[in-house]
Write a structure and sequence with these properties.
The complex is a heterodimer of chains A (about 240) and B (about 210). Chain A is an alpha+beta fold and about 240 residues long. Chain A has helices at about 5-15, 20-30, 35-50, 60-70, 90-100, 100-105, 115-120, 140-150, 155-160, 165-175, 210-215; strands spanning about 85, 130-135, 180, 195, 200-205, 220-225, 235-240. In chain A, α1 crosses α2, α1 runs parallel beside α3 (about 35-50) and α7 (about 115-120) packs across α9. The longest helix of chain A is centred in the N-terminal third of the chain and has 18 residues, at about 35-50. The radius of gyration of chain A is 28 Å and the shape is elongated. The chains are: A alpha+beta (about 240), B mainly alpha (about 210). Bound molecules: zinc ion.
Amino acid sequence: MNCEEALVLLSGHLDGQNSEEEAARLQDHLAQCPDCRRLMEDLKALDAGLLSLEEEPPTDLCESVMEAIRQEAPVRKKKRRWVWPTTAAAAVLILLAGAGTLAAPKLHTTEDAAPQMARMMATAVEPEMAEQEIAEPETADEAAEISLYSGTAEAALYTAAPEDSPAQALAEERQAPVVLVYGALPELDGLPCEALEDGGLLYTLETAESASILWEAHPDEAVLYLPEETAAEVSYALLLP
Amino acid sequence: MTDEKALIRKILDGDQEAFAILVTAYEKQVYNLCLRMCGNQEDARDLAQEAFLKAWRRLQFYQSEASFSTWLYRLTTNVCIDFLRQKKRRPTVSLTVDGDSEEGQELDLPDGAPSPEDRLLHQETSRAVQKAMEQLDEECRLVLTLRVVEDLSYEEIARVLDLNTGTVKSRLARARIKLRKILLQSGNKLESNSSNQPKEGRRTRHEL
Ligand SMILES: [Zn+2]
């Protein structure tokens, strides 16, 4: 064995990954090669030095991660996430209001649907809508309760549930994540694309994770919709007209 | 680890606070990987936080047949690589898709590295190693950190980096030789605890 081969085996020896046969050959070589013996000592020292660099993480790392998560997802029932970026808020409200036929059946299941719808449309242009992530209320009672204390567009949106949006419907239908984007993002260039009946464009993204990645890259220009069950191996980006 | 799978299920079912258990279990590994890759505590902290946040956002895409730690290491690695690329602002070779291209590549053997005895700048080894790591290319830094600091097996490293184990093995050997060379060139003598033999006298060239 020459020294070049010994080198790989030296490294393997330090990692405890050599076979018995390799170990024996290395021993033979070391017995007759002072250079490699010396090299081995050096490499051992290197590993020890490297290991000595290990540090404890900052004590507040976990808490700051959790704090960031809470800000991102104050409520998270079910697996669905609905993210509500500030700049896009008004646009989607109008969109939801415009999709009244879609939203109507759901709205009628709550007692004061009409006032809420009115409120929703009335507040659609209010500038101070906060960035929100909204989970759906489990029951009409819960929805009513939420609307009691917030009494704003957000509450109305609980009843005009995100699953009524075209993006959520698509996510459920295709069992794949759908990211609703507000404008042609450069990442979508050249991707396979189908035209929807309403004039929207639906881009097929490479993996199930892609929609999420796109959303992370453009948190202010996209909303991520997740289906109840993810089955597809792709995901989609929806660009509405 | 079935407990971990159950925990992840619980988180996905809406118990977001349970995510803290995962963070606590892995923060040391994630932080140290980030620390070795970026070289300073401040950035390491930010990168570790970003890695966990990404893990949170993508948790529903975690395929339970893969080990969670492998998945998390891969994600953390990508966060670090992205960070380093942005910092350099120049494109580098992808770390995760170059596969076996280096299979036949020759190892960078130690050549006439200056004999440590020539200039005995006696520094504390770990400090010296830290500085040398900063000069090592990120590919080598990554594989060494995963192996030595994070104590992953060749198989685990192969899964994290999408390489085969043969490549991991040769890359590790190469990384060690490079690191040693950097150290010796910067005038550091390697102190080995395990060696109590007196060092040989001044060497000439390392005949390899
Ligand atoms: Zn030799």
